[in-house]
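Hey, I'm writing a tutorial for new members on how sequence and structure tokens pair up, and I'd like a real worked example in the thread rather than a made-up one. If someone can provide the structure for the chain below, I'll link this post from the tutorial.
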Amino acid sequence: MRCLLLLGWALFVVGCEGSPVVGARSSRDAGGMDSAEVGLSCPAPLLACAGRCADPRGDSQHCGACGSACGAGNVCQNGACVPDCTTGETLCMTATGLRCASVRTDSMNCGACGTACGRDQVCSNGACTFMCTGGATECMGAGSMDGGAERYCADLNTDRANCGACGNTCQEGHACVEGRCRIRCMEGQTRCPTAGADAGPSGGGESCLDTMGDANNCGACGMACPFGQFCVRGRCQTTCGVGFSDCMGVCRDLASDRLGCGLCGVACGSGEVCSMGRCVVSCGGGLASCEGVCRDLTTDLANCGTCGTRCMPGQVCSMGTCQTTCGSGLTDCMGTCRDTQTDLGHCGACGARCAAGQVCSMGRCVVSCAAGTTNCMGTCRDTLTDNNHCGMCGTRCMPGQLCSMGTCQTSCGSGLTDCTGTCRDLQTDNNHCGMCGTRCPAGRVCSMGTCQVSCVEGTTNCAGTCRDTQTDNNHCGACGNACPAGQVCSRGACTVSCGAGLTDCSGVCRDVTTDRNHCGACGRACASGEVCSAGACAVSCLEGTTNCSGTCRDLASDLGHCGRCGNACPAGTVCSRGTCTLSCLSGLTECMGVCRDLTTDNNHCGACGNACPSGQVCSARVCTVSCAAGTSNCAGTCRDPQTDRLHCGACGDACAPGQACVAGRCQTTCGAGLSDCLGVCRDLATDRANCGVCGRACPSGQVCSAGACAVSCLSGTTNCGGVCRDLTTDLANCGACMRACPSGQVCSGGACAVSCVAGTSNCSGVCRDLLTDNNHCGACGRAC
């Protein structure tokens, strides 16, 4: 196919009917310029490369300069070839240069680039711990994706260096998908198995195909069109139709097709889209272009609020402002605040990325077109102006007519202008501002027929740059109003000091009561594992424990720290619910701080302080001359050798402090529901440090329930094999754990259902076009 595309390009350069392209020559000139570049004028910063305008900042074939192509496994970013990181990986600068790191498991880049774990620690779920947690697996041996540690954690479902098993590395150009190495396809392509080949674990037997235009795979893998037909937007047709061009047997919309942009065979580079027949860097809604790279200025730590504004260590970017914690409605995803209700890369949960062509709405990925457009067979169309979809999908205007306000007319309506067959509003159209073909630059909008800088809410246009006049020291309160040296801009006014509760640290207002990098005073950073509380660095203990001189203690049961730090219980007592108490065994009664057996004690017979007369003994709570059956006279006192702690089994055999006499044998015993663990009474049903049996500690993130360690899932999710799942939407766990939906279906309300594109209906599990299907005409099952 690549050869055919190159051949098609060569034929185009020659021109239709053999005529050469205007301004072209058949050979390179003395300076080495390609003949197709002569006479080609490209606007800055684009360069004329191989007969087309290329953006050297993001074009992998012309990265930094014409002809400088990036190798396999690399992409072009800001004019330099860097590794092409897959989903879940972050491009980090290391001692050996740039490389893709999985910040969830990389011991040298744990949670963020450059954050290294301790010698005996591993990186699990983006945090340094002593064991792997959640769905991570512990692997041994130097791993290429974990900083070279001998012992490391890996996600066998997504880790390219440990795909399906520890050490199983996927080859270049492949990604790890559900524990299998699969070929990685560019945007707009579909992964299809090669006919007759075995798609093994290394990804062999697979190809990336354009199912929207490939006649042999039209609409889906293996769906071939009949001989003589074309594939147009995933459907077989006899001709390409209006708006499409025949490119070596493939119908392409040269105005918007990334694989044929402007001319057959001209493919857009990585990160580019085809707009009006030109390859341009296009950022999605809510993103801004920072030196050719799309950034979310509301959450990006390195570009917070404005391009190049980097947050301090320990801070997150929330709503375009560097903060210590995320604001209301936002979630901290690996140090970045995300709105999981609308974020395409973190939809519903951190890391849950929506597929191409989808948006995140209410925490769910759905196909949605922008306001004013309609989903027509998977493509967003403006039914007010589109000649092929005028008023509704598929309604095509006659030759010589134009679509104006959703109606086919011989001329455009009031306030609209005919621009090459399409009615445009020159007052508001960004691509036709003031006159047909006048496109507004990135970051500007068309208002009253003029391209103007469009600043987000809360910022002001100052000489073509959006400024936050509430905090900008150079534009405080108004454009150009710079604060004097030693002052800061706070709430739009230059002040010597920060607002209430904040401290001026080198020109930045800090909350020294909670800031980990400025705890109690400017520049005083807390150590790893500590938090800043009330201006002091302290160990952050788990719920139910208290920091006692740097060690987390359970004040409810700790003998050395009972009720409060340092409060040790005396010998013979235990710590129960934070109080040192004398634990009298069953059958004993506390008399003035001493456990007494009122059935046999001569000084406390039947009741505390009731002493028997001389010559009598206490038997069965009564003073008598002789001992009752089952008791023994020990030095004039009746004793039960089966239960007496001072005469256990025989007269004079006393049990040690804290022990009881059970069936004539000394043994330690705790109260109801508690167990003796090395002399400390523990509740094995709920104790995280002694779960089920003494000494069995639950991993981080788990709790002890009914004597077993279990993942503590949030409301609305279910523990499935140690991973919290939403059974209402999870494709692999729909309605119940491990119940996977078949290919082509989605999980909705806990049930698998066919998800049909706009314009089709679900008829017994098959998507049907009720407008054209002879067997399902107007309604499912109604045959013509």
